[in-house]
Amino acid sequence: MAAQDLRALTSEIVACRACPRLVAWREDVAREKRAAYRDEEYWGRPVPGFGDPEARLLLVGLAPAAHGGNRTGRVFTGDRSGDFLFASLHRTGYANRPESIRAGDGLELTDAYVAAAVRCAPPANTPTPQERDACLPYLVRELQLLPHVRVIVALGAFGYVATWATLRRAALSGVLLPARRPRFAHGLEVPCGRVTLVGAFHPSQQNTFTGKLTPGMLDDVFARSRQLIQASASLTP
């Protein structure tokens, strides 16, 4: 039932035209294209989440890249951020292969689901707070349809704020947020009842090329996430 409901939600996300600025931008990019991809047909629509419906690990990014997810139709697919992310998920046992260049290329996630705070590629990779809030109900519903999630890794400060708002709005059984939202930091752990919210630097080139985020740092986040999941399972009656 969860997989069927997630497919129905995917169809709804893909049809969304709620934010005029984002609709215009994503479609302009899909028409104009980047020279390297001029022979490809761009997706040019909102990008849904994907992964294992039984996932205990949820990853929340910022938004699809203009020539990444907006081109391929799958978040973190076909761009440098995704290369960095999927390589780490592969090393830590959550992905069956270390890279993904397009939807349908054989990538499979085990015990993990990947989503974004905003589903359309934004100009300058910068959604507005209003656009984030307009997209928030989709993340709320995804989380509600992923009942086994025990750890949420927020990739970057934007994803962290959106995830916090999602947890507050979703009103999930057994989830209780602290009174104040802690300041975002890489490696931050916020116990929220049956779910732990973990912060990680976003695998953008701005972070990976400068060494602010290294492969080992991201691997450590996912290894720690697995420890938290296992600890949660041991406490479940």
Q: Summarize the main sheet.
A: 6 strands, mixed
Q: Briefly, what CATH class?
A: Alpha Beta
Task: Please identify, by name, the CATH architecture.
Answer: 3-Layer(aba) Sandwich
Radius of gyration, Cα only, in angstroms? 17 Å
Report how far the terminal alpha carbons are from each other: 24 Å
Count of domains: 1
- Find the CATH topology: Uracil-DNA Glycosylase, subunit E
The CATH H-level homologous superfamily:
Uracil-DNA glycosylase-like domain
What is the SS-derived class? Answer: alpha/beta
3D shape: globular
Q: Could you give the count of β-strands?
A: 6
- Low-confidence blocks of residues: none
Strand order in space, largest sheet: 1-3-2-4-6-5
The average pLDDT is 96
Helix and strand sequence: HHEEHHEHEHEEHH
Helical fraction equals 40-55%
Description:
It is built from 8 helices and 6 strands, in the order ααββααβαβαββαα. It is an alpha/beta fold. It has one domain (2-235): Uracil-DNA Glycosylase, subunit E, CATH 3.40.470.10. It has a 6-stranded mixed beta sheet with strand order 1-3-2-4-6-5, sandwiched between helices. The longest helix is centred in the C-terminal third of the chain and has 21 residues, at 215-235. The mean pLDDT is 96.
